[in-house]
Amino acid sequence: MNTPIKFILLKPRNPDNIGACARAMANFGLGELALVSPFGSDWAEVIQRWKEEASVAAINSMDVVNSARIYDSIPEAAEDCDLLLGTSSLHQIKPERDVLLLKDAAEYIAARGVKKAGILFGPEKTGLTKEDLSLCNAVINIPTLPRQPSMNLGQSAALAAYELTARRTAATAFPRAKAPQASPYEINRLTAEICEKLEKLGCKTGSYQAMAISRGLLDARLTKPAVNMLKLLLKK
Predict the structure, then answer these.
(1) CA–CA separation, 187 vs 168, rounded Å?
(2) For residue 168, what pLDDT is reported?
(3) How far apart are CA 155 and CA 161, in angstroms?
(4) Which of 35, 41, 196, 227 sits between 20 and 30 A of 75, alpha carbons compared?
(5) pTM, full prediction
(6) DSSP character string of 81-148
(7) Contact indicator for 185, 112 with CB cutoff of 8 Å
């Protein structure tokens, strides 16, 4: 999904939570952050403090922080979004909106062909109210245990950022180079050496035992290096 995403934080109280959201966004290539009626502190002062202290809250994500815009209401913050999705644990709330799991959100957005989608996060203490969710097109739910339904704002943002961009920023896999598989001839030679070792140890090995050993080695799909290592051990 390549649809631009804007994260909108409603009435965030803790500046460090905003920094954590910005850091999560930067991790996954999201850059547009909006704050609706944030905490009472002056936002410019918070940014300056983070710069001076090299705060870990927003480490390597000051570009997201510096470009964040402040709004007075949800509609203003989402004015340029064709689709607005609210996030909720749905604890004691039954919104009159479509509810989708976070893992399905990217597909939901892509299927609607919008130019930009907004993801709305609620205040740390209360989350989004039913009235807040009524302004959204649909509700994203992250399944959690009933005994601890709410998540930290930064954690929620990180999960959302990952799920919404997972296909866009696919991880690069580095599979281990595969060693060549041992040939039937090499397995046969190893079987013979094992039987010879067993005979020296006083264990009788007839054709039946040899076939059983051979079958086991073949089923193990041993590599050439593994066969060589076993041969070395048999010589000890």
Answers:
(1) 45
(2) 61
(3) 10
(4) 41
(5) 0.70
(6) -SEEEEEE--TT---SSEEEEGGGHHHHHHHTT-S-EEEEE--TTT---HHHHTTSSEEEE----TTS
(7) no
